[in-house]
Amino acid sequence: MVTLRLSERRARREQRRIRTLVCSASLVRLTTSPSLTRDWILDRLRVAPQIADDPEFQRYAHPPDRDVVPAAVLVPLVNQLGGITVLLTQRTGHLHDHAGQVSFPGGRVDEADVDRVATALREAAEEIGLAPSAVEIIGSLPEWDIPTGFRVTPVVGWIEPPLHLTLDSFEVAEVFEVPLAFFLDPANHERHCDEISGRKRNYYAMPYQGRNIWGATAGMLHTLYRVLSAGG
Q1: 69-80/150-159 β-pairing
Q2: Lowest-confidence range among 5-14, 45-54, 175-184, 186-195?
Q3: Is residue 17's pLDDT more than 50?
Q4: Cis peptide leading into 64, omega within 30 of 0?
Q5: Residue from 102, 91, 116 nearest 220 by CA
Q6: What is the mean pLDDT of the segment spanning 95-106?
Q7: What is the predicted pLDDT for the residue at 50?
Q8: CB 230 within 8 A of CB 31
Q9: What gap in Å lies between CA 89 and CA 105, rounded to an integer?
Q10: Could you tell me the pTM of the whole model?
Q11: For range 177-204, the mean pLDDT
């Protein structure tokens, strides 16, 4: 696995005026296939648009009259010798959007991007130095709306090691990997709800070795879990 640190002190997420509410933590236990190979994952991703959201968990959606900002992220699956991992970034603490949070490499769509795949690959190259030629696109997940105004397309990429990365120190504090098997265990999926300035919000969290993977990133990983688990 790769762990790159540009600072010994991890960026902490921005403090908010939040009142935590009690939410149900029960999840429907789906049966995952033990055959976690590139071809099997690619096959499951073909049916991703048909996989419904968790009916017991209402996630955020932009109001119909809101102007949304199109964006894309790369969900990098790394074919490590010890098992498939998911590559994630820790954002620096001074950024305007999502400071200090764990996220996938990605960002808003540029005019020159021909599609969302181009956006995800460009952003990954800019943020962590991942060459587009090192990524095989094997599918995508349903779009995610984020309260900050973004509508994000998660693009799933397959990567064969070794990884050759160079971090943009302005945006990325650290890069790390988490075993895909961790995210495919529903026992690691926490459901939370809180209240910010009188507005309730639901979100997933998947704490891993002291890292707080939550919000849209955790939500996309939960969707990936549902896609790979559906149909056994």
Answers
A1: parallel
A2: 5-14
A3: no
A4: no
A5: 102
A6: 74
A7: 79
A8: no
A9: 7
A10: 0.85
A11: 86
Q: Distance (Å, rounded) from C-alpha 54 to C-alpha 59?
A: 9
Extract the tokens encoding 33. Answer: 């296939």
Cα dihedral: 178, 171, 74, 36 (round 10): -10
* pLDDT of amino acid 75: 98
Please provide the average confidence, as pLDDT, over all residues in the chain: 84
Three-state secondary structure string covering the chain? CCCEECCCCCCCCCCCCEEEECCCCCCCCCCCCCCCCHHHHHHHHCCHHHCCCCCCCCCCCCCCCCCCEEEEEEEEEEEECCEEEEEEEEECCCCCCCCCCEECCEEECCCCCCCHHHHHHHHHHHHHCCCHHHEEEEEECCCEECCCCEEEEEEEEEECCCCCCCCCCCCEEEEEEEEHHHHCCHHHCEEEEEEECCEEEEEEECCECCECCEHHHHHHHHHHHHHHHCCC
E strands, 38-125, in order: 69-80, 83-91, 102-103, 106-108
Residue 168, token pair as written in the block:
């943009």
Distance separating alpha carbons of residues 103 and 89, to the nearest angstrom? 5
- pLDDT-derived band of residue 215, with 50, 70 and 90 as boundaries? very high
